Amino acid sequence: MINGIVIVDKEAGFTSHDVVAKMRGIYAQKKIGHTGTLDPMATGVLPVCLGSATKVCDMLAGKDKEYVAELLLGRTTDTQDVTGRTLEEHPVEVSCEEVRRTAASFVGEGLQVPPMYSARKINGRKLYELARAGKEVERRPRPIVIHELEILECSLPIVRFRAVCSRGTYIRTLCADMGALLGCGGTMRSLRRTRVGSFTLEGAHTLGEIQQLKDEGRRAEPVLPVDGVFAGCPALQVQRDYYRLLENGNAILPEHTAEKEIYAAGSWVRMYGPEGRFAGIYAYDSGRSQYRPVKMFLEKAEESL
Question: What does the pLDDT read at residue 94?
Answer without folding.
Answer: 97
